[in-house]
Amino acid sequence: xxxxxxxxxxxxxxxxxxxxxxxxxxxxxxxxxxxxxxxxxxxxxxxxxxxxxxxxxxxxxxxxxxxxxxxxxxxxxxxxxxxxxxxxxxxxxxxxxxxxxxxxxxxxxxxxxxxxxxxxxxxxxxxxxxxxxxxxxxxxxxxxxxxxxxxxxxxxxxxxxxxxxxxxxxxxxxxxxxxxxxxxxxxxxxxxxxxxxxxxxxxxxxxxxxxxxxxxxxxxxxxxxxxxxxxxxxxxxxxxxxxxxxxxxxxxxxxxxxxxxxxxxxxxxxxxxxxxx
Length: 277
Fold this sequence. Notes:
Structural class: alpha+beta
Largest sheet: 17 strands, mixed
């Protein structure tokens, strides 16, 4: 076993402990994949990340991202949380922006107004969900009448999200999922808040393969940002709320600039120490 520095950060909220927690293990080049996976299961956080030296010369660092169920090529709140932890320990990007290397390739992270924002990677699958059996399963998983699903689309940028749009934020907040029906699916739901409120939309994220609601989700909001702006359901710049039902105060700033969707938010440091792995 070897000693590693570890950072615990809270992503996507200015309210203390109001966002999505992340554990970041620094200097993880000596750790094997099995050790990373075991530690991620032990933390039981939605994601745990491991910082490594980059393999691509264009990158500032490389990260591996693990859920309790396995490794992801990309995830949003781990991207911002890892960048923040790397900067806090003296990381200096080669250019103006931070360039992260991960399983999905290179991801740009920029600093602006006390927040971090990542440029959403391309969607791997982006098309309406047309299979009748799958549409029925989505509705059953959310305990909603199929007619309540205004639109359903693949929004897969690595984790495999399916997005469902419903009439309003109240419908989103009232969902009580059927986890048995959802087994294996990753579902995101979005509905609009009344005009003039702080946030444009309310978002919830359900991870059916390990039966959990994710508090605040960068990858899902990245896909939704393209979907909502492509169809005129949201302006090119808006704020999404997430985690409300879980007692969190997640706030995700989404901005569309030409063909790039930027997803940003506040990252707060919670704890720093060492771990033997």
